[in-house]
User: Fold this.
Amino acid sequence: MSDGSVAAYFAGKTVLVTGAAGFVGSHLCERLAERGAKVVGVDNFSFSRPDAAKGSSALELVTADLRDPAAMKALFERVVPDVVYHLAAVANPRTCKQDFPTAFDVNVIGTQNALRFTPAGARFLFMSSAAVYGAPEYLPIDEKHPRRGADPYSVTKIIGEDLAANYLANFGRNVVVVRNFNSFGVGQTGDYIVPQLIRQALTERKIEIWDGRTVRDLMYIDNTTDALLVIAASGERTIVNIGAGRGVTVGELAQTISDRFGGAIPVVDLKKTVLGSPALVSNNERMKSLGWSERVPFADGIEKTIAWTRSMIAAAPT
Ligand SMILES: NC(=O)c1ccc[n+]([C@@H]2O[C@H](COP(=O)([O-])OP(=O)(O)OC[C@H]3O[C@@H](n4cnc5c(N)ncnc54)[C@H](O)[C@@H]3O)[C@@H](O)[C@H]2O)c1
Assistant:
């Protein structure tokens, strides 16, 4: 799809984004507003980005909990969205393992609430994860690859996907499932691989990695939001991978970050066991066939993310 037809699709549409104050949600809301959509975000601010309050001028940001059916019913009935992006989740695999009951309630019951209260004619996008694939049988991973993810986060995403498929098959809903690989960029914090390594480089002047051989498909967030817009506008109702189609080892990532500091930051490989799949690389042919391509190169994304993390550290109270 051309940029023009994506913009035409969203112009004047009411779009509800769950998890709007999170890393992906905040970027998505901004991009939708730029495309002329009336954007309403919802979040309970449990894992929101530290600078979420700034928000976008075009955005109404509602504080509510996806687990609360009465609050969701009232919100969806008031907003009457044309498009729903369901992003809210306990998105960190380690947090899902530490507190599975909460992860289940948010990622499964929350997804059921979002599906249940979405108006019958609306477009619904469920944000799943490449984690559902588990240890790969082959690389790159296409959408037909079996779902072998067995860690608590993957389990909640697999159930969420099945709920979405149920609403498509049995209740005639206009649903699409997105399996995102690894987005990184401005606004991402916590113990995700890219912000973690950049923060170490900036504050500790060394980078410690768990296992340098782990492979991830890392892509700058602007490319992810481009894809999310194209998928909703395309009308696609199957499953779509979002990823760069390029594997980067954690060792290479650490070295790339170290190189930005003139190679002065030593990299230490702790050789520890990593939660989740040893290698995730997307086959992104389906995404490309919808007219999408990667706009912001990996290296530029790393530069932007270092600059943002540096500014956040500088602004933090000492
Ligand atoms: N970032 C990635 O690379 C990536 C990869 C694959 C899938 N995903 C999926 O994309 C989505 C967004 O991920 P993210 O990286 O922006 O995570 P995030 O943690 O930054 O954002 C999730 C948002 O959901 C909100 N939320 C959590 N529980 C809620 C509740 N009960 N009610 C309302 N809001 C609630 C949080 O406060 C947070 O703002 C998630 O579904 C995640 O599983 C992300």
